[in-house]
Amino acid sequence: MDETLRPKIDQRRRRPAFACVSCRKSKIRCDRKQPCGACVRSRHKTCVFETSRCPTSRRSGIASTADPYGTAETERRSDLGPVTPASSTAVANDHSRVSPLREPGSTNSDVTILDADGVLKRLFHLERRLNESTAAREPPERSEVIESYLAADIHAMSRGVVSKTRYFGQSHWMNGIIHFKPMLELFQHQSKDAKSEAMAVLTRCKALARSIKAQRNPGIIGKLGTNIPPRDVADKLVDGYLRTTETVFRVLHVPSFKRDYEQYWAAPDTAGLPFMIQLQLVMAIGCTIYDDYFSMRKSAVQWVTEAQYWLLAPPAKGKLTIIGLQIMILLTIARETASVGGDLVWIHVGSLLRSAFYMGLHRDPSQLPRMSRLDAEIRRRLWNTILELELKTSVDSGGFPTISTETSDTRAPADLDDTDLMKDDELKNKESGKRFTDMSIALALRESFRERLAIYQMLNATPFRGTYDDTIQLHRRFMTTFKALMNKLKGYASLGRQPISFQCRFVEVMARRCLMSLHLPYLGPGLKDPAFSFSRKEVTESAIKIYCLLFPSVSSLSSSFPLVAGGDDLEVLSTEGDDLSRFAICASGFWRLLASQPSMIAMLELQTTMQEDDSLGPPTPRPDLLNILRHSLPYYASRIKAGETNVKGYLFTTALAGHVQALMDGLTGPKIMEPVLSAAIKTERICFDLLKQQLVSTEYADAGTSDAQFDWDSLMTTNEEWENSMMGSFFEVSSVNNFLGPNGGFDFISSSMPF
After folding, report:
1. Under a CB-based contact definition with an 8 Å cutoff, are residues 383 and 410 in contact?
2. What pTM was computed for the model?
3. Per-residue confidence at 684, pLDDT binned at 50, 70, 90?
4. Triad 160, 164, 166: Cα angle to 5°
């Protein structure tokens, strides 16, 4: 055969490439590690090694999967998991990873064609496994255990807290308790002292609290919907709900509810059971602001319990109605206000959210069978309220909001009054947005939903994917929305109909709480590192403004009012009919956090600034922070007077007040311990007397309980029993590793709901 007719053979050497792709392009020496040293120094996110070299023409697209690496590649595969196939047979059998196709007419068993989708999937899988292996090799931060009755024996991690059987993300208030570690260690030391008076009185308070909770349990309920108060009392309770909570979280169509309410009083026996349960929940929420002492707490607890029984009773399908969803929403709010498992409502909201999905509320009514304007708007309103409750309860529980961009296509509710929905003619002219309506506050709060969702998704994501740059970026975006929200509320002042004080203050509290939560993870570093001083300032100022919005009288508090009262008179607050202040004092769950968390932050800032004071004389505290501390003591006392059984907040605040007073008096070293402990012991005695009054109050007189009949000796538990209870609760905590993962860029706004 003529030599000129023979095909030319590529004589280039086909040596396997041992260096990674990045080192080959940069023409530097590669140490062949995974990842290699050069990529680590240059901070490349991926360090990829080519697993095959093309032995034939590049134009043919044929790649050989023969293993040129030998033992080194085998070790690399064992490190990263099943990412790179060991042979062409493994590749050919794994269609989910690579999806190879044999070239027609090819006789080489080691020759395959890799399609583009398979390569992309393979690279994505390799990068993910690489990030996981890199994070696994990094030494985790040590989980810090705080053993204290006040701290509930928490495991403090970098991005969350584990207490007993529950995990709390960054938005949960308990993450801030670690900043008071010296104070917690003081009580832990006292708990180990067999002669400690502080722990002895605290044990009795705990026993009294358990007895009070047992007394409030309504027990087995024979018939539902029969415990209705007289008409004059019911009117006040219903009006209390309609003028407060209903104006923010829209649940009812008020004209329809008032019509059914009047029909009930005209003929009580003809009312249906679902309406009776709905009415009782409305009254249960109204009980919270009936007076300053929550005198109708027992009735509220019974009404909430009856609603729970009704939801659990068969048939379950019969609850999948509009009034069934309204009852579930009202039950969510009432459980928090009446303190019936208020810290577990996020679980209930999960069932509520899925019930709404099952009923199609996540689809806009225009995509469903034809319905009236009233029915369509009620569905939109309920879906909007469910989203707000899902976000609010997830924040309170420290959980990740289970809402994504694909959840709904339901449009925003119309900006119309309830009476307008009963007319189907020409409503577009009224929906102009230039007047204040029954939906204006709910829609104004909705305008910031996207930014709030992005912030809480970043805070409670596991693993944590945010950086400080992400925090600053979210801060800028949120402040733009926040300023627009405040300007919108101010614009209503020039209209004929204006929002009430409760509505404006509540919306601002919700917005500032989100801003405070955004910077809370950097409060601890901000107390030591000036680089995070901006976050420290934002957290402190937001906490002060939230507390002043809840209690406007705090700014006018007299400076002569002592931090630790010397007399025996108990100082309690008078709300003077302010609905928002009454919710903060009487309600639990979310409403209690609105005041307790900002006061805790204000006290931390006050304590820190006084300890940082380097002047020759005694430290001079900030007047606004000092006023919040002065106001917090009667606030916690008022909560116990209103039926609160948890004395930890009052005890902890009094101990901090004693510490601040000692610093103001110029005391240092061990001399500070005496005023702190004396203030704590005095507070415990006050709490014991208040709990004792609750147990023998007239509310339980019908049960035959009296001061003379009650066995007080059973409450005097020994110190040995106290120590056993402490150790029992300690060993219930599960040991967990650090949840902090590698930081990466992530646009949380783009992943939020498209509002």
Report:
1. yes
2. 0.74
3. confident
4. 50
